[in-house]
Amino acid sequence: MHVTKLSISEAATVVAGGFITASLTTPDISRYCKTKGHLFWMITLCIIVGEFIINGIAILIAQALNTDDIVDIVTINAGIIGLISVILSVVKVNDVNLYTSSLGLSNAFEILTGKKFDYYKITIFVGLAGTALSMMGILNHFVDFLSMLGVIFPPIAGVMLVDYYILKTSRKILDETREKGLLPDDSQTQLIGWSAIFACVVGTLVGVFFSFGIPSLNSILMAGLAYWVLMKVKS
User: Which of 65, 142, 173, 220 is in Cβ range 3.0-4.6 Å of 158 for a Cys bridge?
Assistant: First the structure.
């Protein structure tokens, strides 16, 4: 089994990229949860069952069979039923990825252009683009892709944490609308947070060009610090 060796900092960044991306897209899925209990158990079970138990078993089987090819692992142990399970699992995972990416692009296009685009058209475009990239062999660079996520998405989380827990921007508006079961309208909140965007860019650049420590941690801390400074200067 061919193994690509990663340093501790590189491995931490790869793992952080996947987990922080998942945490940032979780609200797209949890928006349909009707109670706090539903939200808690959805996230908890996904982490315990999906990340620890299933991934732990997969690692043990991969080591025992001396292969990292998921198709080989499943077909050897479960035959055609296992192969069908893999196919259905891929469909399910990519369905979620398609939903969150299309939703994000739709919102971004609407804010930047002031026009509302047909959601289904964006979904079709993103699906075709993803399929084309897969056929071109993008999975051969999967580790590089995760490393990229590990310095792009943590800054977003850093800005969100600083904004909500430290600066408490729009906290009063959020509390008032939460009691009514509503979201703040456009007139109550800033349409584009340029300070947040600039801070995310700074955090990403630090994660990419500075190799000391853990890049994902550097990017999230620098983005949060940059955002805090910018907001303090503006006020």
Answer: 220
CB atoms within 10 A of CB 75: 15
Question: From residue 23, how far is each of 18, 29, 100 by CA, in Å?
Answer: 9, 10, 12
SS3 130: helix
Give the largest Cα separation in the chain, rounded: 63
Confidence of residue 1 (pLDDT cuts 50, 70, 90): very low
Q: How far apart are CA 15 and CA 149, in angstroms?
A: 9
The residue count for the chain: 235
Q: Which residues contact 202 (CB under 8 A, 6 or more apart)?
A: 155, 222, 223, 226
Classify the C-alpha dihedral 130-134-137-140 as positive or negative: positive
Q: Take residue 231 and report the two structure tokens written for it.
A: 């907001």
- Token digits for 128? 């075709």
What pLDDT, on a 0 to 100 scale, did the predictor assign at position 169? 85
Of the candidates 216, 98, 235, 104, which has an alpha carbon nearest to the alpha carbon of residue 157? 216
Task: Retrieve residue 222's tokens.
Answer: 């620098």
- Taking the C-alpha atoms of residue 131 and residue 139, their distance in angstroms, rounded to an integer, is 11
Helical H segments across the chain, by residue range = 8-30, 36-45, 55-65, 70-113, 119-135, 142-161, 171-180, 194-209, 215-234
DSSP state of 118: P
- The pLDDT tens digits of the residues spanning 19-35 come to 888 888 888 888 888 88
CB 169 within 8 A of CB 231: yes
